[in-house]
Amino acid sequence: MLFSNDDIVDRIAKQMAIKNLTVNGLAEEVGISSSSLSRYLLKRYKFPLEHITPMAKALGVSEEYLLGLTKTLAHVDTVKVPIIGNIACGEPILVEENISEYVAIPKDSISNDPNEYFFLIAEGSSMVPTIQPGSKVLIHQQDIVDKNEIAAALLLDTNEATLKRVKYISDTLVLSPDNKDYDPIMVTPKTPIKILGKAVQVITEL
């Protein structure tokens, strides 16, 4: 699922015109500076997704409309899903120390308990073209990921989370990059991992 920054900004500008809102007035309602909002509207900077909820409220539309998920202006239920930063070995994923921020997503876009989901920020280019660097990847917490699905795995020797496609060579689990310029990770007793969950959505800002 791709969210276009230009489309988001165009929808914001359209609603500002309809409601005859000024940059100063809207910025105050959203809780950001007018200079920042001006730069977003001029597309000099990407509109931060953490401001989608207050922006939608200020414009009287739904988050889904601003994100381009629906053409309907009406509000629909959303849930806030945490973005996870560093993950310490041996502690639960969703502890306060691990959460850097939250992203609002449509409640009906997930099929399980919202508390079972979290976001990871893709780093590096190992999953290009499937997942671009900087993308927000929605993960469903589960211990088992099927062959050819993309897993979020914790490398226990370094405490680093990685996104890779699950493969098998004989009985050996392999974390395979989609980018052929990168080497796969062979899971052995010397390279232990913990499966954190399965990637189910990707949010990429253009």
Describe the structure.
The protein contains five helices and nine strands. The chain has two domains: 5-75, lambda repressor-like DNA-binding domains (434 Repressor (Amino-terminal Domain), Orthogonal Bundle), CATH 1.10.260; 79-203, Ribbon (Umud Fragment, subunit A). 21% of the residues lie in helices and 29% in strands. The model has no long low-confidence stretch (mean pLDDT 85). Strands 3-4-9-5-6-7-8 form a seven-stranded antiparallel beta sheet, with no helix packed on it. The protein has 206 residues and is of the alpha+beta class. The protein starts with a helix and ends with a strand. 29% of the residues are buried. Helix 2 packs across helix 3 (34-41). It has helices at residues 5-19, 23-30, 34-41, 52-59, 63-67, and strands spanning 78-84, 99-106, 117-121, 136-141, 150-155, 160-169, 172-176, 185-186, 193-203.
Q: Which features does this protein show?
A:
single chain; 206 residues; alpha+beta; Umud Fragment, subunit A; seven-stranded antiparallel beta sheet; two-stranded antiparallel ribbon; 5 helices; 21% helix; elongated
